[in-house]
Amino acid sequence: MLIPQDEIAKQFNFMQAVARLNEGKEKYATVKTYGCQQNEADSERLAGMLVKMGYILTENEQASDLILVNTCAVREHAELKALSITGQYKHLKEKNRDLLIGMCGCMVSQEHRKEDVKNKYPYVDFVFGTSMLYKFPEILYTKIRSGKRQFCLDDSEGNIAEGLPVARESRFKAWVSIMYGCNNFCTYCIVPYVRGRERSREPDAILEEVRLLVKDGVKEITLLGQNVNSYGKDLPSPVSFAELLDRICALEGDFTVRFMTSHPKDATKELIDVMAENQKIAKAFHLPLQSGSDRILSLMNRHYTAEHYLGLVDYMRKKMPDIALTSDIIVGFPGETEEDFQKTLEVLGKAEYDNIYSFIYSRRVGTPAASMPDQIPPEVSRERFARLIDRQMEISNRKNKDYTGTLLRVLVEGRSKTDETKLTGRSEKNRLVHFEGDDALIGTYADVLITKTETFALFGELKKN
Ligand code: SAH
Ligand code: SF4
Ligand code: F3S
Q1: Model-level pTM greater than 0.90?
Q2: Closest atom of ligand 3 relative to the 107 alpha carbon
Q3: Which of 84, 98, 148, 287 has the most crowded Cβ, counting Cβ within 10 A?
């Protein structure tokens, strides 16, 4: 499952070979990313390989010699966005015959989508699935040398590739994948089909990566996995996620650790205890509920009840009264009645989330839920979705108001996109905070006194030392 080092070395040779072809020319490349943090982390590795192959990274597709679209398949909307942007690149190709267009990631890891691209997007030069990421240099080289379109999917259960180059977007925030794939097969979800089975990286490889990041000045590390609570179960010498966290926190330096995502069926008290005891772990927990109805949870194959879920929340709040809690919720799952939906609202009221990510159920080809009876009409889902958001807005608003007059430690990320006069950053609890300050603060922690609040953001003044 671990890709042998000589195979990785072979890919480094292909990187050099492409770099030689690009020598003396100014070649630009764009990586467009859709989907979750896992995809963003993958894109940073793809970008790292592109840099080694002599490309200069740019966000300007018009000026690019190569465009790579890293796709997501989680909902129809995500697929349509990736297909529509790729459709627009047709015009760029008409203007520049030498432009190379590639697609990778979750959407094109589905056989039927790969076939769609092959047949309907003739200007796409190469496609590779998530388990082929490490082979990108070879695929690109082969395309350039042979001129032939490349379509590379396999039906393996996935792999782990260590030692690939990474071009990170941020100098002070970093994603660290600790495991790949998912074994849970929630009945609505496509991820297990496009990301293969669960597999964990060796703890030493993770620790070394984090150590180097912290040494380079990275302040915030987010550990990634579809279900981090199953981390380490598949290793030759098993290590629990709680143990891994403990070992990461024992590394020297001033840094914060976050993680996502936790599955409620596997979230342990041990994990919550480790979190409560470790200063370095941000007191923010993302615990997807999906539905508050036990009947729907069972149809979703989630393996927990609303009561179990709320028990975890209680334990967390007992250990860490100020914890920020967030969740994912799906409305309109097949068979969801108004009564089921009311149960979701009930749990929402009890859990008092700081924020939620809510989604209208999207039918995914090949998943069990796609062929379940009683698919919910879109207008019913939309109406429930609006009610869910309304209820949450009230809660988020009230919770944000409580911040007025408090002092928050904020990791400063950059200039605000909507107001250039302000800096923007995130608090430990992931609140967006805007305030006036100097560019020199970017990438450092600042203390901000909160003076005004909105539903999705806080405003404040920099505390002068
Ligand atoms: N592994 C993570 C989440 C992965 S996908 C977990 O288990 O929590 C992120 C979120 O997308 C999910 O939590 C779910 O709320 C949502 N999602 C997944 N499949 C979906 C679908 N078919 N329709 C709507 N939302 C979906
Ligand atoms: Fe999808 Fe469920 Fe796996 Fe999360 S745990 S990725 S929702 S199958
Ligand atoms: Fe992530 Fe989308 Fe794939 S949510 S794992 S990029 S299907």
Answers
A1: yes
A2: 7
A3: 287
